[in-house]
Amino acid sequence: MTTSNKNHTLNNSRKKAYTVPKLDKGFAGQDIISVSQFSRKNLEHIFAVAEEMRAIVKSRGSTDLLTGTVLACLFFEPSTRTSSSFIAAMSRLGGTVIPITQGVQFSSVSKGESLPDTIRTLESYADVIVIRHPEMGSAKIAADYARKPIINGGDGVGEHPTQALLDIFTIKEELGHIDGLNVGMVGDLRNGRTVHSLARLLCLYDVRFDFVSPEILRLPLDVMNDIRDHELPAAETYDVADIISDVDVLYVTRVQKERFADLAQYEEVKDLYVITPELMEQAKEKMVIMHPLPRVGEISYHVDSDPRAAYFRQMENGMYIRMALLAAVLGKA
Ligand code: NCD
Fold first, then answer.
1. Ligand 1, CB cutoff 6 Å, lining residues
2. pLDDT, mean of each 10-residue run, the chain (333 residues)
3. Which residues contact 99 (CB under 8 A, 6 or more apart)?
4. Nearest Cα to 223, choosing from 158, 179, 164, 154?
5. How far apart are CA 24 and CA 147, in angstroms?
6. Known catalytic residues?
7. How far is the CA of 154 from the centre of ligand 1 (A)?
8. Which residue from 124, 71, 141 is spatially nearest to 100, judged by alpha carbons?
């Protein structure tokens, strides 16, 4: 079931011709590596299934849709929400999990085993693998070797496609639509993979962007070029006060300390943006503040009680989206 759509041989060599597939023939057996795979139709499907998953969880907690299937969670970088929401998602669907999350030091990776060998091992036990790894492109390499579906749970400063799915799902749930919105993104736009995936996926819609960052943390050129290719308006500024009254979505991100070679540079920019209740007085009455979390000071705790603060609802949505995605990739939705 899970292997049928993947064009992989069973031998040990890497398939050099492998390109990340579009999802126009459905999700069953497919890798989820990049948001570039998705169409609006794909998103509508996943969002509809996620709504059903939410209804199941609220009414009876779990279902037996994926009974007998196994997810391997291979996390080479720290994670709270992505790993635990995937584990919870699989559990609530009746499946089980091999968690190699906070404990990569206890796996043979710490003995120097290569990524392809680790993937080959896990795919002989599991039906689908979620991987988070510090190197950009690592999920694609894993998919290149694997016969089973690989889901990218974050590849360094590259992409975080499942986060972008839950982000857009949240915007739709909170504001009712995506087209016509003005989306502000604040913080570490250079290193934030959630920003890269979300900005790219939003290019499927008719939105305008306001990017707020210091010079050294500006949005990468390739992401900006994608936005230009879609002829969507995008402005860049240094000051969040310039945009706060205009935006429908304020997507705040942490400065990614672990990506800085020079920690003195991190110190210079780490506290530039703090969203406070005073700042929120200038924002629209109907808008949302989002954050992929973890936050390390860029949204004041006093903002949490503001009804526009959607980041905890966003986080909860992650489980429903990941339930939908697992069911879809395993051919059950
Ligand atoms: C993000 C990530 O890992 O990229 N967290 C997440 O998955 N919710 C954001 C971050 O670490 O800043």
1. 81-82, 154, 160, 163, 193-194, 254, 256, 292-293
2. 42 59 94 98 98 98 98 94 97 96 66 84 97 92 94 96 98 98 98 98 98 98 97 98 98 96 95 97 98 97 98 98 98 95
3. 73, 83, 87
4. 158
5. 20
6. 81-82, 111, 132, 160
7. 8
8. 71
Residue nearest to ligand 1 atom 8, measured at CA: 292
CB atoms within 10 A of CB 250: 29
Sequential DSSP letters for 183-195 = EEEES-TTT-HHH
Rounded to an integer, what distance in angstroms lies between the CA atom of residue 161 and that of residue 40? 14
Q: How far apart are CA 120 and CA 97, in angstroms?
A: 17
Give me the residue label for tokens 């920690």: 263
Q: How far apart are CA 164 and CA 205, in angstroms?
A: 13
- Going by CA atoms, what residue is nearest to atom 11 of ligand 1? 294
Which ligand 1 atom sits nearest the alpha carbon of residue 253? Answer: 12
pTM for the full model?
0.94
d(CA 209, CA 234): 5
How many whole angstroms from 12 Cα to the centroid of ligand 1?
33
Q: To which H or E segment does residue 250 belong?
A: strand 249-252
Q: Cβ distance 324 to 57 under 8 Å?
A: no
Residue nearest to atom 1 of ligand 1 (CA): 292
What value does the CA radius of gyration of the chain take, rounded to a whole number of Å? Answer: 20
